[in-house]
Amino acid sequence: MCNLYKMRANVAEVANLFNARAHEGVNFGDEVYPGYPGLVVAQGEVRTMTWGFPLQLTGKQGQKLKPKPVNNAREDKLSTAFWRDSFAKRRCLIPVSAWAEAEGPKGSMTRTWYSITGAELFAVAGIWRPTQEWGDAYSMVMVDGCPQMADVHDRMPVVLTPQDWSTWLTAEPEAAFALCQTCPQPLEVDRTDEPWAKLRAPKLC
Q: Is 109 helix (H, G, I), strand (E, B) or coil?
């Protein structure tokens, strides 16, 4: 599952690409982590939301713990109670430049980045909802991984082509669900020596 992605464009560039209105004064990192702000296109606007739906956890003594951000939604779980209403009523586009997976032995994993060949920015399928904990929050929709990812991970985000953006945002759930397919486009794979464990709060811009 995806727990880190890059978004290397500013708000105006995203608004222009997706023909959406831009909110001013939004803050987000160019590397996006679960529980932190990311840029999304929803309801005709480019805006920030928190990446991950809050899942309330309970300690052994029954005490409430800090919520966990559930930042990936499997397509075969979209009909379950946790995701159903958001998928039916609140779908969004997530602008992405590349997503990362952890590769290598435990304790020394590195970041392997995946992007769409020839695309500096593309759209990943997302769903969102308002939350008491973090305000509006979003999650990526995931499907089976393509062969290029098989040696690293068996799941990948739903990559939407421009002609499918409107369908994902506005069509009935059945038509939107039909778009939840493994990406057929070739991927660019960038294996780095960046340690996966350096995950930390991103610098906001």
A: coil
Taking only the tens place, the pLDDT of each residue in 137-170 is 999 999 999 998 888 889 999 999 999 999 999 9
Structure tokens at 41: 């296109």
pLDDT score for 93: 98
Statement: the pTM of the whole predicted model exceeds 0.90: yes
* Mean pLDDT of the 8-13 span: 92
Indicate which CATH number applies to the domain containing 13: 3.90.1680.10
Looking at every residue in the chain, the average pLDDT score rounds to 91
Transcribe 23-85 into DSSP letters. PSS---BSEE-TTSEEEEEETTEEEEEEESEEE--B-TTSPBPPPEEE-EEEGGGTTSTTTHH
Tell me how far the alpha carbon of residue 139 is from its chain's centroid: 6
| CB atoms closer than 10 angstroms to residue 54 | 18
The domain containing residue 160 runs over which residues?
A: 5-54+66-195
The answer to the question of residue 16 being in a domain is yes
- The answer to whether 196 and 102 are in contact (CB under 8 A) is yes
Residue with tokens 């062969």: 147
| Token pair listed for 91 | 């779908």
pLDDT of residue 205: 39
Residue 152 CA to residue 201 CA, distance in Å, equals 25
State the Cα–Cα distance between residues 179 and 123, nearest whole angstrom.
12
What is the Cα–Cα distance from 126 to 95, expressed in whole angstroms?
10
